[in-house]
Design brief:
It comes from Caldimonas thermodepolymerans. InterPro entries: AhpC/TSA, Thioredoxin-like_sf, Thioredoxin_domain, Thioredoxin_ResA/DsbE_sf. The protein is an alpha/beta fold. The protein is 25% helix and 22% strand. It contains four helices and nine strands. The strands form two sheets. A seven-stranded mixed sheet has the order 1-4-3-2-6-7-8. Strands 5-9 form a two-stranded antiparallel ribbon. The radius of gyration is 15 Å and the shape is globular. About 9% of the residues have low confidence.
Length: 184
Amino acid sequence: MNEHIAPALPDWQVSRWFNTEGPLRLADLRGRVVLIHAFQMLCPGCVAHGLPQAARVHQRFGGEGVAVVGLHCVFEHHEAMGPQALQAFIHEYRLRFPIGVDGPSPDGPVPRTMAQWRLQGTPSTLLLDRQGRLRLHHFGALDELHLGVAIGRLLAQPPADRSDVNASTADVAACADGACTIGR
């Protein structure tokens, strides 16, 4: 584990939104703790672990200062995971939090935000503090207790608190069970 507080993330580059009245920007979410779940709908680890976890966080903490946002990052099987298929997937899995489709890259299969944020694959979980700074970045299935403690610590901070608290960033060098890596 590498402990540090990263600067604010650059904004995502989303081509389409679901479950929200309009486009979201990271700046719009300042003042709340933000859980971002990067996923692919055909990723077994996302379907089995990441998306249910994001849905539980949204259900439990959504009214308590935590925003949950899904980021659909398609880096393989592009033809099978278009917006219509994603809309049906969101409906069937009853996902209620906002979900953005990461914008395609003109340079290759890895979408824009995924490349800009240097995500290793899916599922990836990112946790931002109330100021929009990255406090946790984890590739693969994330332990529920670890995530709950991290969210609780960030919620316990006053909204204007900029003090240094333990931040956890999981640096994963290889594939983890239940995760789909980007073939680079």
